[in-house]
Design brief:
Length: about 210
């Protein structure tokens, strides 16, 4: 099943960013988008995840054109089927790490996975306020929060940017197992060539074009 399809995407701000980008992703697959800062990687991910409308082109998620969906349909899609992981975490600051997971579980009608908490190495800090955690711990809570809701498609922008190499590889293994078990997909934006090499497909954003490498 095709989870994501982008057709002839083009976008610019005060300057041209990229032109005629097309790609697709099937269940169980992952793709990495690499490139220098400012090349348009994160902007492309925002477009693919329905958060930004391109100047030209279309995006289909699970066979549906997102630009023909109503606001309520989009909210439901983002809540139930999409998982967003950012380097800046966006956790609920007044809550504990566990309470952040509980919110995700409640909104998606899922249960908090204690095994996932242990695999991510945050079981000892899970009841602490997120403001008391290190950047790396907050990153892992953010990853756990997204996986708790069991998304069909994960969009991850530098999800291991605050982690050491060994932990980053362990997190990537968790992602890979999740995709295989749930027949989900993942779009990964990263500067880490080693992480990118573990994805099904690798693309490089350079000089306004996206090329498979």
């Amino acid at each position: 099943m095709t989870l994501l399809k982008a057709i002839s995407l083009s976008h610019h701000f005060d300057y041209p960013l990229f032109e005629d980008v097309s790609l697709s992703l099937d269940a169980g697959e992952s793709m990495a988008i690499i490139g220098v800062s400012g090349s348009g990687k994160s902007t492309l991910m925002h477009i693919l995840s329905s958060l930004l409308h391109p100047i030209k082109g279309d995006v289909e998620l699970f066979g549906n054109n997102v630009y023909r969906m109503g606001d309520k349909e989009l909210v439901k899609l983002r809540r139930n089927d999409l998982g967003m992981i950012y380097q800046n975490h966006y956790l609920f600051k007044g809550f504990s790490a566990y309470e952040n997971l509980e919110v995700a579980a409640l909104l998606s009608n899922q249960a908090v996975d204690l095994g996932l908490i242990e695999r991510l190495g945050i079981e000892r800090v899970i009841n602490q306020k997120v403001t008391e955690l290190s950047g790396g711990q907050q990153q892992r809570v953010s990853i756990a929060r997204v996986l708790t809701k069991k998304p069909r498609l994960i969009f991850a922008d530098e999800p291991t940017g605050n982690l050491d190499h060994t932990t980053a590889m362990e997190v990537m293994e968790i992602f890979e197992e999740y995709l295989a078990h749930h027949q989900a997909g993942m779009v990964l934006v990263t500067h880490d060539e080693t992480l990118a090499s573990r994805c099904t497909y690798r693309y490089r954003m350079q000089e306004g074009t996206l090329k498979q490498v």
